[in-house]
């Protein structure tokens, strides 16, 4: 699963990305700072099962800080899109080509309305950020339309005269966009279009179908950025009316807090509702003032900077991911080296015990016999559907041998 950070230029996308990953990406207040997409590792924050189970864990593939498990995930920061990017305008299709790899989108929007539709600075409140949401929807939908329309008549002829299934044809055509068979079937159901007569589909039909594919295959949330600017509060309510999940966000505040924590000036874990100054005497007056402004304008008002919440929401709300903890010894909750709860896996909801075994190692999946619920010690079959927070031991022929 991969989340992409998208939006128009100059809205704070790269600041969001750097704050989330602490990666070295260029930040500047002008369009197209990000010429090539940046990739980095962020973390999902969940309550670790170590506290519930009363054990001291020893994480290997993740971190555990005060009972909070931080699990690494990859983020991709795509450069800013401008209207008609699907036609090649601006830096155009190369950015849309990066979006195709994403399973969910975090749309960073300037909620203060201080950048116009092209990403140029304007007076706060002068631009309507809802327009940014609508234009991005259209850009992605039109991009899908153009891919679908390539040799559409030939594809329709194969379906109508050679008996090929439209779902199969579109699955091959759209596989590179991370669009799955289930997305195509859902789009056909919701649009009511006839899959047996694609030659009868109008341009409006193609657009409606592509738009539904976008909604199904690229679920999106809005990170309402620059929430500390006064004009953002009213726009926040308007953004919520778009029907998307909206997370109030201040990427600059998150970046400042993470840098201060990195230097040991404050104690702060991404997603916390507040921070604690370690030694006030080590802060310059301007640093103290800046931190207090963050506390007053962002944390006290919205409960967080929103960056961690947006990342969590992309994976857990949009993609329906869950967290599971594979162990080798279900009694001691450890691996073969004795490390307690060494790994935490983020997997799609609906993942089975055998599928988890394959994720851990191909041989483990192939030689799967059964799984064990470490809490109840019950045996679980290969089709057991994992639940959030499960601690699972896989028993395989390889392990027995």
Question: Brief overview, please?
Answer:
By secondary structure, the chain is α/β, with parallel strands linked by helices. Helices cover 39% and strands 18% of the residues.
Calculate the terminal CA-CA distance, rounded to whole Å: 33 Å
CATH-derived topology of the domain at 323-400:
Ubiquitin-like (UB roll)
Element-level helix/strand string: EHEHEEHEHHHHHEHEHEEHHEEHHEEEH
- Average pLDDT: 90
What's the β-strand tally? 14
- The gyration radius over C-alpha positions equals 24 Å
Q: How much of the residues is beta strand, in percent? A: 15-25%
Number of separate helices: 15
Global structural class? alpha/beta
Low-confidence runs (pLDDT<50, min 5 residues)?
A: 24-37
Helix content: 25-40%
Give a structural overview.
The strands form 3 sheets. Strands 1, 2, 3, 4, 5, 6 and 7 form a 7-stranded mixed β-sheet that branches. The chain has a 5-stranded mixed β-sheet with strand order 11-10-14-12-13. A two-stranded antiparallel sheet has the order 8-9. Among the domains are: 68 residues, Helicase, Ruva Protein, domain 3 (Orthogonal Bundle), CATH 1.10.8.470; 78 residues, Ubiquitin-like (UB roll) (Roll). With 401 residues, it is an alpha/beta fold. Helices cover 39% and strands 18% of the residues. A hairpin with a 2-residue loop joins strand 3 and strand 4.
């Amino acid at each position: 699963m991969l989340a992409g950070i998208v939006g128009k230029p100059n809205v704070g996308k790269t600041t969001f990305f750097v704050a989330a990953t602490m990666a070295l990406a260029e930040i500047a207040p002008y369009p197209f700072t990000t010429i090539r997409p940046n990739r980095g590792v962020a973390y999902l924050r969940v309550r670790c099962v170590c506290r519930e189970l009363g054990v001291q864990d020893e994480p290997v593939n993740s971190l555990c800080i005060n009972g909070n498990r931080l699990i690494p995930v990859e983020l991709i920061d795509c450069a800013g899109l401008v209207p008609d990017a699907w036609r090649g305008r601006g830096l155009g299709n190369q950015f849309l080509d990066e979006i195709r790899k994403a399973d969910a989108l975090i749309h960073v929007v300037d909620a203060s309305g201080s950048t116009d539709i092209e990403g140029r600075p304007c007076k706060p409140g002068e631009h309507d950020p809802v327009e940014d949401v609508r234009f991005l929807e259209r850009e992605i939908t039109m991009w899908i339309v153009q891919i679908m329309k390539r040799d559409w008549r030939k594809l329709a002829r194969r379906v109508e005269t050679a008996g090929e299934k439209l779902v199969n044809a579109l699955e091959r055509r759209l596989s590179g966009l991370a669009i799955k068979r289930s997305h195509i079937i859902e789009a056909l159901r919701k649009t009511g279009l006839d899959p047996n007569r694609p030659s009868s589909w109008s341009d409006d039909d193609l657009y409606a179908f592509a738009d539904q594919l976008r909604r199904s295959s690229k679920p999106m949330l809005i990170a309402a950025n620059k929430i500390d600017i006064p004009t953002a509060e009213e726009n926040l309510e308007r953004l919520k009316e778009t029907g998307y999940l909206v997370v109030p966000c201040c990427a600059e505040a998150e970046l400042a807090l993470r840098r201060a924590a990195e230097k040991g000036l404050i104690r702060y874990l991404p997603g916390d509702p507040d921070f604690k100054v370690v030694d006030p005497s080590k802060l310059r007056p301007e640093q103290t003032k800046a931190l207090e402004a963050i506390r007053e304008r962002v944390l006290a008002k919205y409960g967080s900077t929103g960056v961690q919440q947006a990342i969590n929401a992309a994976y857990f709300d949009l993609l329906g991911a869950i967290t599971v903890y594979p162990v080798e010894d279900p009694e001691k909750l450890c691996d073969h080296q004795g490390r307690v709860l060494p790994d935490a896996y983020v997997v799609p909801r609906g993942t089975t015990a055998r599928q988890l075994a394959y994720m851990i190692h191909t041989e483990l999946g192939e030689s799967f016999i059964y799984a064990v619920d470490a809490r109840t010690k019950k045996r679980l079959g290969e089709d057991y559907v994992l639940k959030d927070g499960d601690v699972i031991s896989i028993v395989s022929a390889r392990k027995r041998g």
